[in-house]
């Protein structure tokens, strides 16, 4: 055996070197190289938060705030408008709202999703499909139904993920509100405050009740009253000398008169000033003089 190894020493060493190189190189290719999206940016209850999940949550919030909404009737104008889904997470108040907090702290949208999942909140496929059937997507200069996205599978997937995230957070809010219990002492206190008070909304003093007790003003008294407050605007003046705000002076006014001419009528009048042939000639001249336009 020794003689065989001595005879083939170089070949044996070559084979050993090949095995060592293979053992060293293969793990380099099999070991997964971390990508930016798989980088950990924090932990919540022992679970790692990945940068890719954070980027997706920020993108979903942007779509919910600007692009995905429900058509609603505007009570002021009476016209239909697209209300962003994000606005249903609470309107702005003096003490802030969920919408304000998420908009100021983008990671919160991902954290709220994680919290909802930890609490057992789920979104069924039926609920998601029902909501997707109602939402509309405002893309740049047009509004389309979710079903009309056509072959844009990437956009459809992003919309589906965003709506699911919204339903997850919204359901978590609703679940939290339903668990709030009002104690009996607090209820009794509020009831006592609201029911044990005397409230007076209107006290009416009819002038007819006092008309026969006050003498009718003479023309001289009426003229004196007018002259005294003739230079005062109604409701203005010194409260010490004019506590009731008497005033008979009209404010400065302006009378405006104008004539409105329809742009279409102006176009017709200008077009009628020349024949179609002459306009064609003028157009050719203008084109040759202004090729850059």
How are the secondary structure elements laid out?
Blueprint lengths: L1 H6 L1 H22 L9 E5 L2 E4 H16 L1 E6 L6 E5 L13 H7 L2 H12 L6 H10 L1 E4 L2 E4 L7 H26 L5 H12 L23 H10 L34 H10 L3 H14 L4
Antiparallel strand pairs: 1-2, 3-4, 3-5, 5-6
Tell me about the biggest sheet?
Answer: 4 strands, antiparallel
Order of helices and strands: HHEEHEEHHHEEHHHHH
How many β-strand runs?
A: 6
Structural class: alpha+beta
The 3D shape can be described as: flat
How large a portion of the residues is in β-strands, by DSSP E?
5-15%
| Average pLDDT, all residues | 79
Strand order of the largest sheet: 4-3-5-6
Cα Rg: 40 Å
Provide a count of the helices: 11
Helix content: 40-55%
Low-confidence runs: none
Task: Note down, in words, how this protein is organized.
The chain is an alpha+beta fold and 293 residues long. The protein contains eleven helices and six strands. It has helices spanning 2-7, 9-30, 51-66, 98-104, 107-118, 125-134, 153-178, 184-195, 219-228, 263-272, 276-289, and strands at 40-44, 47-50, 68-73, 80-84, 136-139, 142-145. A hairpin with a 6-residue loop joins strand 3 (68-73) and strand 4 (80-84). The longest helix has 26 residues, at 153-178. It is flat. The N and C termini lie far apart (94 Å). The model has no long low-confidence stretch (mean pLDDT 79).
């Amino acid at each position: 055996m020794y003689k065989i190894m001595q005879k083939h020493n170089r070949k044996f060493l070559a084979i050993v070197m090949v095995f060592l190189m293979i053992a060293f190189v293969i793990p380099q290719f099999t070991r997964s190289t971390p990508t930016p999206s798989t980088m950990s940016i924090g932990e919540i209850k022992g679970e790692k938060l990945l940068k890719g999940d954070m980027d997706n949550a920020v993108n979903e919030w942007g779509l919910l705030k600007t692009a995905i909404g429900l058509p609603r009737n505007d009570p002021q104008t009476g016209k239909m408008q697209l209300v962003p889904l994000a606005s249903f997470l609470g309107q702005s108040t003096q003490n802030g709202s969920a919408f304000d907090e998420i908009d100021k702290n983008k990671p919160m949208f991902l954290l709220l999703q994680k919290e909802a999942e930890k609490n057992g909140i789920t979104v069924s496929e039926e609920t998601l499909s029902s909501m997707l059937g109602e939402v509309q997507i405002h893309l740049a200069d047009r509004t389309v139904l979710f079903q009309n996205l056509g072959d844009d599978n990437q956009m459809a997937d992003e919309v589906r993920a965003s709506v699911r995230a919204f339903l997850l957070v919204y359901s978590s809010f609703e679940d939290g509100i339903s668990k709030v219990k009002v104690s009996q002492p607090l209820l009794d206190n509020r009831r006592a405050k609201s029911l044990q008070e005397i409230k007076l909304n209107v006290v009416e003093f009819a002038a007819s009740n006092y008309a026969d007790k006050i003498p009718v003003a003479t023309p001289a008294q009426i003229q004196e009253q007018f002259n005294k407050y003739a230079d005062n605007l109604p409701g203005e003046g010194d409260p010490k000398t004019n506590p009731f705000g008497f005033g008979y002076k009209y404010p400065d006014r302006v009378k405006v008169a104008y004539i409105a001419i329809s742009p279409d009528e102006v176009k017709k009048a200008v077009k009628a000033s020349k024949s179609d042939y002459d306009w064609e000639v003028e157009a050719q001249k203008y084109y040759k003089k202004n090729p850059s336009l």
